[in-house]
Write a structure and sequence with these properties.
- Helix 2 (40-55) crosses helix 3.
- The chain has two domains: 2-164, Dna Topoisomerase Vi A Subunit, Chain: A, domain 2, CATH 3.40.1360.10; 191-355.
- The strands form four sheets. It has a five-stranded mixed sheet with strand order 2-1-4-5-6.
- The model is unreliable at 327-355 and 360-365 (pLDDT under 50).
- A hairpin with a 5-residue loop joins strand 13 (337-339) and strand 14 (345-346).
- It contains 13 helices and 14 strands.
- 37% of the residues lie in helices and 16% in strands.
C-alpha cells in the first residue's frame, strides 16, 4: 500500500499511527506561480525556476525533488492500493485535481485508488489540516477512505485542464454551471483562486488586500501580519514563503504600497517591520489602482497576467482587460466578463470605494 500525502506535517504524524504502507509526499505549491499545460519534464523545470525565486533554494535541488515526487507516483504498480490524503483548502484541492488528471492518463488495472479528504474533525473547532491531527486521529480516518470513482477522475481532470489553461474565463464559467458535488471542497477552493485575481475595484488580489488591511493601524512584524491574514481565511492554505513573496511584491514598483526594513528572501520571523505607504492607503481606499500604479506580471495557474492583458475579479464576474489600465482618477475600462453566479456574459461592473464590502472570515483584522 502506498500513501500519497500533502506534506511532511502529515507524514510525521501518519508514520507512528499504525496505518500500514509506504508513504510519499507530493506538495508542489500549485497556487503560486505558473502552471502551464506542457510535458512533465518542462513543467518541472518551469516550476523549479519559479519556486527557486520564492524560497531561495537552488533550481536543481527543487527540480530533483519534483522529479522524485513524480517518480514515486509512477511506482504505483508496485502496490495493491494507493491512498491519497487531502483536506479542503486550495493548496490540497489543486494537488488533488492534478492527481485525478494523472489517474485519467495511466493504466489503473491491478491497483485500487482511494481517497481520504476531510474538511474537519470531530472535537476540533478550527480545523486547519491533516497535520494538525494526532497519529491516532489519522488512524481513525484510514478506514473511512473511499474508492476514487471514474466520475471523480473526470471532474478533477477537467478542472486541472481549466486551471492550467491560458484563459481563466472557462474555469470561472465552469464553476457556475456544473455539478462538482462528488468533489465537495473543489468549488470553494477554486473560488478562492479566482479571488486572488486583481480586483476590479483597486487592482488588489484578496491576499494583497488582507495584508494591507492588517497595516491600517500601524507597522507590524511580518510574522504578526502572516498570523493575522491566516485568521481572515475560511480555509487556511498559504505558507509563509508564498505570503512573504506577496509582501515583497507590494514593496516593489514605481509606487510601492508597503515599505520593508528587511528584504531577505525568506520571511524574517522575529525581526523587521512592514508599513503601509500613502500609495497603499490610496489603493486601499479605492482612490488609486495598484496595477495602474505599478503594473502586473503574475501567473495564475496557466494564465499570465500582464499590464497589457489581465483579468479582474469583482466578486461575481471575471473580466478580461486588454491594454487599457485605470489610473487613480479614471473609471474602470469597459470589458467583457463571466458571471460566476450565473455564467452569463456582460459588461464591466464598476465598484465605487464605498461599495467595497469584501468581508472575509475573521473580519478585517
Amino acid at each position: 500500500m502506498l500513501h500519497v500525502l500533502n506534506g511532511d506535517a502529515t507524514r510525521v504524524k501518519l508514520g507512528p499511527s499504525g496505518v500500514p504502507g509506504d508513504m510519499i509526499v507530493w506538495a508542489d505549491v500549485l497556487h503560486d506561480g505558473p502552471v502551464p499545460d506542457v510535458p512533465a519534464e518542462e513543467f518541472r523545470a518551469v516550476r523549479a525556476a519559479h519556486l527557486s525565486r520564492v524560497i531561495g533554494e537552488a533550481e536543481e535541488v527543487i527540480a530533483r525533488n519534483l522529479e522524485q515526487w513524480d517518480a514515486a507516483l509512477e511506482g504505483y504498480r508496485d502496490h495493491d492500493e494507493v491512498v491519497f490524503w487531502f483536506e479542503h483548502d486550495l493548496f490540497d484541492q489543486l494537488i488533488l485535481v492534478r492527481h485525478l488528471h494523472w489517474l485519467s492518463m495511466i493504466d489503473r488495472a491491478g491497483t485500487r485508488f482511494s481517497l481520504v479528504c476531510v474538511g474537519g474533525y470531530s472535537g476540533i473547532g478550527i480545523f486547519t489540516g491533516l497535520g494538525q491531527l494526532r497519529p491516532g486521529q489519522l488512524a481513525m480516518l484510514f478506514p473511512e477512505r473511499q474508492p476514487i470513482s471514474d466520475a471523480q477522475i473526470a471532474i478533477g481532470s477537467h478542472a486541472w485542464n481549466l486551471f492550467r489553461a491560458p484563459d481563466p474565463a472557462p474555469l470561472a464559467e465552469w464553476l457556475s454551471s456544473s455539478d462538482k458535488s462528488l468533489l465537495p471542497f473543489l468549488e470553494s477552493a477554486l473560488r478562492r483562486h479566482l479571488e486572488d485575481f486583481p480586483s476590479s475595484r483597486d487592482g488588489l488580489s484578496r491576499s494583497e488586500l488582507q495584508i494591507l488591511r492588517t497595516l491600517v493601524d500601524g507597522p507590524r512584524a511580518p510574522a504578526a501580519i502572516f498570523v493575522a491574514t491566516q485568521k481572515m481565511e475560511e480555509r487556511v492554505f498559504m505558507g509563509d514563503a508564498t505570503f512573504w513573496s506577496i509582501v515583497r511584491g507590494l514593496a516593489r514598483g514605481p509606487h510601492p504600497l508597503v515599505t520593508l526594513d528587511r528584504h531577505e528572501l525568506r520571511m524574517p520571523v522575529g525581526e523587521g517591520q512592514v508599513e503601509i505607504t500613502p500609495a497603499g492607503r490610496d489603493v486601499l481606499a479605492g482612490a488609486a489602482d495598484h496595477i495602474g500604479l505599478n503594473g502586473i506580471d503574475r501567473w495564475m495557474g496557466g494564465a499570465h497576467l500582464t499590464s497589457r492583458r489581465h483579468w479582474r475579479w469583482d466578486g461575481s464576474w471575471l473580466h478580461s482587460l486588454n491594454s487599457q489600465l485605470p489610473t487613480p482618477n479614471s473609471q474602470h475600462p469597459t470589458c467583457g466578463g463571466l458571471n460566476v453566479a450565473s455564467g452569463a456574459e456582460g459588461g464591466t461592473h464598476s465598484m465605487a470605494p464605498e461599495d467595497d464590502d469584501r468581508e472575509f472570515a475573521g473580519g478585517t483584522a
